[in-house]
Amino acid sequence: MASLLWLLVVLILMWAALKILGNLGSILGVLLIGALAGWLAGKFMRGRGFGVLKNILVGIAGSIIGGILFGLAGFHSAGAIASLVSATVGAIVLLYGVRVLQSR
């Protein structure tokens, strides 16, 4: 079940990368913010991170989820700090959802 969830995360990230990212600078920025957001979410939810690759995946997926959630609430991230907050909140929501699905 966990492998299927990680595969779904990777597919969503690949789709998002194709739609959103344009140049190398933005790709590196997204990877950096994703890694930080994934690490922060891992610290918040588990007390430790997941490793670099999973941190990046969780953080990038979290940025998509956070962007949707914050957009629905009427907020839009402008700048690196706002993007990091949005991505971290989204990653926490993602990890909470995965935890709920795994406990069933």
Sheet bearing the most strands, described? none
Overall helicity: over 70%
Distance from first to last alpha carbon: 11 Å
The shape is: globular
Unreliable sequence segments: none
Report the β-strand fraction as a percent range: under 5%
* SSE-based structural type: mainly alpha
Average pLDDT figure: 78
Secondary structure tally, helices: 4
Number of strand segments: 0
* SSE ordering: HHHH
From the alpha carbons, calculate the radius of gyration and give it in angstroms: 13 Å
* Count of domain modules: 1
Task: Please supply descriptive tags for the structure shown above.
104 residues, mainly alpha, 4 helices
What does this structure look like?
- The chain has one domain.
- Helices cover 83% and strands 0% of the residues.
- The protein has helices at residues 2-20, 24-45, 52-72, 80-103.
- Helix 3 (52-72) crosses helix 4 (80-103).
- The model has no long low-confidence stretch (mean pLDDT 78).
Task: Give a brief description.
By secondary structure, this protein is mainly alpha-helical. It has four helices and no strands. The protein is globular.
Write the layout of secondary structure elements.
Elements: H1 2-20, H2 24-45, H3 52-72, H4 80-103
